[in-house]
Amino acid sequence: MTLSKYKQKRNFSETTEPTAGKAVQGKHVFVVQRHHASRLHYDFRLEVDGVLKSWAVPKGPSMNPADKRLAMAVEDHPYDYKDFEGTIPAGNYGAGTVYIWDKGTFELMNPNGSSFDKEALKELKSGDLKIVMKGKKLKGEFALVKMKGQEDNAWLLIKHKDKYAVASYNSEDYTPEKVKAQGLKEKATAKQLAKKKPVVQVRSSGEAAPSPEKKSKAAAKKTAIKKVYKPMLATLVSDAFDGAEWLFETKWDGYRAIASVANNKVALYSRNEKSFLNDYPPVVAAVEKISHNVVLDGEIIVLDKKGRSDFQALQNYKTTGKGNLVYVVFDLLHLNGYELQQLTLLERKSLLKDLVDDLDDKTIRFSAHVLKNGLRFFKKAQEKEWEGIIAKKTAGIYEEGRRGMSWLKVKIINEQEALICGYTAPRGSRKKIGALVLGMYEGKKLRYIGHCGGGLNEATIADLHARLQPLISQTSPFGEKVATNMPVTWVKPTLVCQVKFQEWTGDGHLRQPIFLGLRDDKPAKDVHPEKAKKI
Fold this sequence. Notes:
Helix content: 10-25%
Radius of gyration: 28 Å
CATH topology of the largest domain: D-amino Acid Aminotransferase, Chain A, domain 1
Oligomer: single chain
Largest sheet: 8 strands, antiparallel, barrel
Mean pLDDT: 86
Structural class: alpha+beta
CATH class of the largest domain: Alpha Beta
CATH architecture of the largest domain: 2-Layer Sandwich
Number of helices: 8
Number of strands: 32
Number of domains: 3
């Protein structure tokens, strides 16, 4: 990258951005400029060999070592750009408000006695630049690590653990309110101008499409998006825990869904490859707005007024179209031609967070997490009456289609998938169905696990009865004899439902099961009892 590219992108008759500048010998400066363009970002610039090597950091620098900030390399800027503040006019490259957020000097963390510029350029070329920053806001040791591969503009900006490191950091907290207000005002003015006359839209430096090729030691594989991705699964464990190598997320109660965008073509499907394209149009519309080729992993849910996922409300959404429908995403499997499964979870989630923030659509939400403190998070989940929590190894890779010990789930509310194996005749005021006869597989053997009459309203019963009629069988699907208090109509065990219950009885039955809804997203052969493991 050279200054020729910088100059090609700018009309200096309309912008006051500098064209040149000469560096001071022996003094290496840095500047961080808050750039409120079409998307807010921070420009991180280091003076090396007389020019400012530059990166766009969408989330801004952080003094928290746990924050691995995505930094997209952009064209070199002239030395005098270190002092530039003001407004780049609408219609120009990077139009928006620029504010000097921090500036100072920096040194190499490991100087070897040779020329500063030669050593810095060598480290940049290797994709691993380690520096000591001496600014008003940014202090101490930092690293810029390139995500290597065929494309070379994706880096990570990482704070080292030293005396200046903090546990939580947000760059916006250190920006004056009048600067924030000015940026918003300029952005609103630009939108008004855009409405009055057509403007050729040019992406600002902060909007470069992320294209990860390598992070840390884990390589991202260059390949086209596959037709189908199998979700990684979580193993049930008995107790919550703390762990330095773990993060903890909300356990969402909905339909697991993979979403992909490949050359503007959208797919949205379940664990068993059932298409959701016709079921959840708002989610499809939100995914269509993503400007990158991506594969997302998440859960389609309906949120109640307290912000909890409600599976029964999700069931009702199919018929009523009412409810706060959300696609909450927690993993990123592919981005712009690169498979990301071999990256660490934190690296994948860092890229995912930036992508969701850039999309800015309330239908797609990032599944936030906490680090280390699983017990405290579990207590919060209990207080808020969530279904449970998920624990994931921060350095773990994505193991497609596998249920291992890198992802764990801890339940608060007992829920279980079950097979509908028949239904009893109704009595009293109830019509068509009295109770559902439930079963599940233990190995290859189908075992009876109880009756379920709770949670069945008139509309649910009508729908279930209609769906069960083609499945009626003259014989019981169980090898054992099942005692019922009313005559039973047996059906082929192909419909999967979800129930919540108090506990398992000593003879392996569900105590007080309540019907929540059907699970069209899960195959019958996968319905087995979940027994919590000790860890």
